[in-house]
Specification:
The structure holds two protein chains of two kinds. Chain A is mainly alpha-helical. Chain A has 18 helices and four strands. Chain A has a four-stranded mixed beta sheet with strand order 2-1-3-4, covered by helices on one side. The longest helix of chain A is centred in the middle third of the chain and has 33 residues. Chain A is elongated, with a radius of gyration of 29 Å. Chain B is of the alpha/beta class. Helix content of chain B is about 35%, strand content about 25%. Chain B is built from nine helices and ten strands. In chain B, strands 6-7-8-3-9-10 form a six-stranded mixed beta sheet, with helices on both faces. Chain B has a four-stranded antiparallel beta sheet with strand order 2-1-4-5. The longest helix of chain B is centred in the last third of the chain and has 16 residues. The two termini of chain B are about 30 Å apart. The interface between A and B is medium-sized, with 28 and 36 residues.
């Protein structure tokens, strides 16, 4: 125990002397959390603002009441903002350069042509840069508006008495009442919606936790190349003891990262106008997933350190694999918007296990039981990494 | 002090064994020189003697105890000073010494005394508060040796301790090593510098290709060298003639 304490204290002293690297581990995620939480605030917000609406040109060349009704029905969508003024050339240019996303043209004579076998058609044009889900949403909105107005007109034609009273004789307003829309949370408390900060704090926190692999592997290689590890092995320190001497202090660094990033989410992001992070209802669950993620990240760093030969290799290996695991694990792009096949692949990344565990606690209001499978997977990953690292260390030609 | 019999070691993936049946005897109190070109097996032998590596076969006994069975007790009575500066550059001299003392579980009550002794013999008494990365090359080597002396070793293994240092530091180190040996510590001194071995050692072994080619006192080996047909001209008679006669002059470029 005394030897382990000595190793741990030495590590703290080394970290204290290399405070630049240490500071990077805290500054980098803090910056990302602030930046991304504020930048993506509107994407996650309940009420959309002008920054996440889509402009479309609505050209109603057919001035009959029917075409006007369609135009009015389209105008009720909050996400899509109509612009009615603009020449064909201006419309084309704005759609091409992305300042408008769509154009809907109701042609002259459209209403009159409806009884024809081949009626005139409403033109719907999308910009090439519009994402497929938004494109599909807009087209569905147009179809919904046309269907609603067309249905009303057909019923009125079949039974003029119905429409004589005016108003919403089809009682279309009841359609919305037929739907009960909810967001699913782990607990029964369904009132809270995910915010940008709830998505970004865990994502960049997990990313930063795995980034300890960089300074950890670098210092390990320096010790190996300087002969310190050889000296420590020659005085009988086992690989297990040497690995534990690194694991514990860096795990503490990870825990300080967790605390700091949560503080930033709860108190600092709101200062800059973002939403405050909510911490869920399970401090124990939060502690368990933080410890499991930390153990996995430090063990992963020790494995890298024992697989490579030079600090340059360590820098490249940790940087590249962290980015890959982060991208795959849902740090940069939330898993929920990945294609289904990629979502399955992303579950191979330990960052994904950590991130989903944090999201279970912070977003889905889960508890220890919810995160237990992910915590077990992270600990297993840590054990495998440490075993491989120890095996490599045991067999290494240390001098 | 050291008895090595028929030790063989082959690294994974290597065709030729690093040690191909080494026999070696180092008597207690000796200042023993281990000579050999790159790749001769010196480092592998030291790794085995310090318990870092396990020999594939053969017998290794130090002070009557066997390796690897008694590795822990052997490691407590031995000390290795690796070729590199085996300490932490951002820690001070004092912090490095206290760390390695703690790692060797030297009792807290005697740590201060051990530090003072190690600093005195290596001439670093006035450098305890200086960070190791600010020391000169010679001071760094002396710090490595000071760390090696902390556990009062009965057997001190020095691997190329004078590489890359100025003549004054080198002379100081050689004198210090003589003093350490005179105090009763058995010293195994690995070096490429034949004149250092001639100056220091009372017994010498020449290794090459994983075998001990010769072992004897300096007088025995230099006597053997007389009248040898040498592959290269040498300035003086002695160990150098025998070394080149046994190991030849081909370059020993090796990949690590």
């Amino acid at each position: 125990m005394r030897v382990l304490t000595t190793l741990v204290l030495k590590e703290f002293l080394l970290l204290k002397r290399d405070w630049h690297a240490l500071a990077l581990l805290f500054v980098m995620p803090a910056f990302f959390i602030l930046l991304m939480s504020l930048a993506m605030r509107d994407v996650f917000a309940t009420g959309r603002t002008s920054t996440n609406t889509f402009r479309y040109y609505l050209v109603n060349e057919d001035t009959t009441g029917f075409a006007t009704s369609i135009a009015n029905a389209l105008g009720t969508h909050a996400v899509f903002q109509a612009t009615t003024q603009g020449s064909a050339e201006i419309r084309r240019r704005e759609i091409l350069n992305g300042s408008a996303q769509f154009e809907v043209v109701i042609p002259l004579g459209f209403t009159r042509s409806l009884p024809d076998s081949v009626p005139l058609r409403i033109s719907v044009v999308s910009g090439a840069g519009v994402s497929p889900p938004v494109n599909e949403l807009f087209r569905a909105s147009v179809r919904e508006a046309v269907t609603s107005v067309y249905l009303r007109a057909r019923v009125a034609a079949l039974n003029p008495a119905l429409s004589a009273g005016g108003g919403d004789f089809l009682q279309m307003a009841k359609v919305n009442a037929l739907l009960n829309e909810e967001t699913l949370y782990e607990s029964a408390q369904l009132s809270r919606r995910p915010t940008s900060v709830q998505q970004n704090v865990p994502a960049w926190l997990v990313f930063a936790m795995f980034f300890v692999a960089l300074p950890l592997s670098t210092t390990w290689l320096q010790e190996r190349n300087q002969g310190s590890l050889t000296k420590l092995r020659s005085i009988g320190l086992s690989p297990v003891l040497l690995l534990a001497g690194k694991l514990l202090p860096y795990l503490l660094v990870n825990m300080v990262q967790v605390l700091l990033m949560l503080v930033i989410g709860v108190w600092v992001v709101p200062v800059f106008g973002g939403d405050a992070l909510t911490l869920g209802h399970s401090p124990l669950g939060l502690a368990v997933i933080a410890l499991a993620t930390g153990t996995a990240s430090v063990s992963y760093g020790l494995l890298i350190a024992n697989l490579v030969s030079t600090t340059e290799q360590a820098t490249i290996a940790t940087g590249a694999t962290n980015l890959l695991l982060g991208a795959l694990g849902g740090v940069m792009v939330p898993r929920s918007i990945m294609p289904e096949a990629l979502q399955h692949v992303s579950m191979l990344s330990p960052m994904s296990w950590g991130l989903e565990g944090f999201l279970d606690i912070l977003l889905r209001e889960g508890g220890v039981r919810t995160i237990a499978p992910k915590a077990v997977m992270l600990v297993c990953f840590a054990l495998v990494s440490l075993t491989l690292a120890g095996f490599r260390l045991q067999r290494a030609r240390t001098f | 002090m050291i008895d090595v019999k028929g030790v063989v070691h082959r690294y994974a993936g290597q065709r030729a064994p690093a040690l191909a049946g080494i026999d070696l005897h180092v008597r207690r109190g000796s200042l023993f020189g281990l000579l050999g070109p790159n790749g001769s097996g010196k480092t592998t032998l030291i790794s085995i003697l310090t318990g870092i590596l396990r020999a594939n076969s053969g017998e290794v006994r130090i002070d009557g105890r066997s390796l690897p069975q008694d590795a822990r007790s052997i490691q407590r009575m031995c000390s290795l000073v690796p070729q590199e500066n085996a300490f932490y550059p951002t820690l001070t001299v004092g912090e490095n010494l206290r760390f390695f003392a703690g790692a060797q579980e030297i009792p807290s009550a005697v740590i201060a005394q051990r530090l003072a002794e190690s600093l005195l013999i290596t001439g670093l008494e006035n450098a305890t508060g200086i960070r190791a990365n600010r020391l000169s090359g010679g001071m760094k080597r002396r710090l490595s040796i000071a760390i090696g002396l902390l556990n009062h070793p009965q057997l001190l293994l020095l691997d190329e301790p004078t590489v890359g240092i100025d003549p004054q530091s080198r002379q100081f180190l050689l004198e210090a090593i003589k003093k350490i040996n005179a105090n009763g510590t058995t010293v195994v001194y690995c070096s490429h510098y034949l004149e250092e071995v001639e100056f220091l050692c009372d017994e010498i072994a020449i290794l090459d290709h994983g075998r001990v080619l010769r072992q004897g006192t300096l007088a025995e080996l230099t006597a053997e060298s007389r009248g040898l047909a040498l592959p290269v001209p040498v300035r003086t008679a002695g160990l150098q003639e025998l070394f080149f006669h046994l190991t030849k002059t081909e370059l020993r470029d090796m990949l690590l």
